[in-house]
Amino acid sequence: MQKFMKMLNNISRSQAIYRYSKISADDLQSAHYAFALAICREPGRSQEELARELCINKSTVARNLNYLEENGYIRRESLPADKRQFCVFPTDKMLAVLQEIK
């Protein structure tokens, strides 16, 4: 089982290196690709929905979304019914690199 897990880890790291070399956006990291695909697939999702879909804890989602927002890839809007929840939308900058990510 350890050999299998090591092989999966190597494939994952190789995939991240390959994607990083092919994307023109220098400020996107390999961890952000999954966020980009999920956000563009269904704009307006909440951070909690993203956490559930990507199987990542909420604090990691919030940290990555902060990074994407600071670099202009997404915008967040609070829900009128609940000001503590945010919906995430892609910006034109995110849509411009989406085809490269796919």
Set out the fold topology.
Elements: H1 2-22, H2 32-41, E1 45-46, H3 47-54, H4 58-70, E2 74-78, E3 86-90, H5 92-101
Antiparallel strand pairs: 1-3, 2-3
Helix pairs in contact: 2-5, 3-4
Q: What would you say this structure looks like, in words?
A:
With 102 residues, this protein is mainly alpha-helical. Helix content is 61%, strand content 12%. The chain is built from five helices and three strands. The chain has helices at residues 2-22, 32-41, 47-54, 58-70, 92-101; strands at 45-46, 74-78, 86-90. It has a three-stranded antiparallel β-sheet with strand order 1-3-2. Helix 2 packs across helix 5 (92-101) and helix 3 (47-54) crosses helix 4 (58-70). The N and C termini lie far apart (31 Å).
Brief write-up:
The chain is mostly helical and 102 residues long.
